[in-house]
Write a structure and sequence with these properties.
203 residues, alpha+beta, single chain, 32% strand, two-stranded antiparallel sheet, 9 strands, 4 helices
C-alpha cells in the first residue's frame, strides 16, 4: 500500500453499501484472523471472522450502522474511490428489557499498515459521536441521562483492554464464554471469553 498521502487527518467515513461487501470481508478477516497488525486475534481464534451474508445482513439492518473509510486515489474525500476499504466500524442500536437504548460498537478494524498512526482513534471517535447523538436525540435521551456505549473484546488481550480503557471504557462485569457454534471462528483455548466494556457519554 502506498501510504504517502494517507494520514489520520485525511480520514473520513461513509455508510457502507452492498458494493463494499467484498472489500469489507477481506479487511475484517485480515485484521482479525491473520497475524498482521497488533489488533489481530490469530493466536486466540481461527477460521474466518465474517461472511458476505453476515455483512449483507448488517448493511440491511435499519438499527445497525456500518461505516467505512474508503481509499481514494488522492486520499481526499472527493477523489475517486479505489474499491479498497482502509477501516470500518459498526454501531448497533440496541434496546434492553426496560426499553433503555444503548449503542454497541463492533466490527472495528483498521488496515494493518495504517495501525499505530492514529487512524483508529479518529474512526472510533467518529462512531462514538454518531452513537451519542443518535441516542440523545431519541425519546430515550430526553431525561438527559448519559448515553451508554458498549463493546466486547476477547479475554487474554491486555493490550487491547488497555487501549479501550485509555479511551474511557471500563469492564462492567458482564462476560460470556466465546460462542463455539462455528459462526464466530474457532476458539484456540477453552477459557476464552467475551468481556463487555462500557462507556457513558453525554452531549
Amino acid at each position: 500500500m502506498n501510504e504517502s498521502h494517507l494520514s489520520k487527518d485525511a480520514v473520513f467515513l461513509r455508510q457502507a453499501d452492498a458494493s463494499d461487501i467484498g472489500a469489507l470481508e477481506q479487511l475484517l478477516n485480515c485484521c482479525y484472523r491473520e497475524t498482521a497488525g497488533w489488533t489481530n486475534e490469530a493466536d486466540l481464534v481461527g477460521g474466518i471472522r465474517i461472511t458476505p451474508e453476515e455483512l449483507a445482513s448488517t448493511i440491511n439492518n435499519p438499527t445497525h450502522y456500518l461505516f467505512v473509510y474508503p481509499k481514494t486515489t488522492t486520499g481526499e474525500r472527493d477523489a475517486k474511490e479505489t474499491g479498497e476499504i482502509l477501516g470500518c466500524i459498526a454501531v448497533d442500536i440496541k434496546t434492553d428489557a426496560n426499553s433503555n437504548k444503548k449503542a454497541y460498537i463492533g466490527m472495528f478494524a483498521v488496515h494493518p499498515e495504517l495501525q499505530g498512526h492514529g487512524v483508529g482513534n479518529v474512526v472510533l471517535q467518529a462512531a462514538e459521536t454518531f452513537a451519542t447523538r443518535h441516542l440523545l436525540s431519541t425519546e430515550n435521551g430526553t431525561d438527559k441521562q448519559p448515553a451508554r456505549l458498549t463493546m466486547s473484546i476477547l479475554s487474554h488481550r491486555p493490550e487491547l483492554l488497555a487501549y479501550y480503557q485509555r479511551r474511557g471504557y471500563q469492564l462492567n462485569g458482564n462476560k460470556i464464554p466465546f460462542p463455539n457454534d462455528g459462526n464466530n471462528g474457532e476458539p484456540k483455548r477453552e477459557d476464552l471469553e467475551l468481556l463487555e466494556l462500557e462507556k457513558r457519554v453525554s452531549a
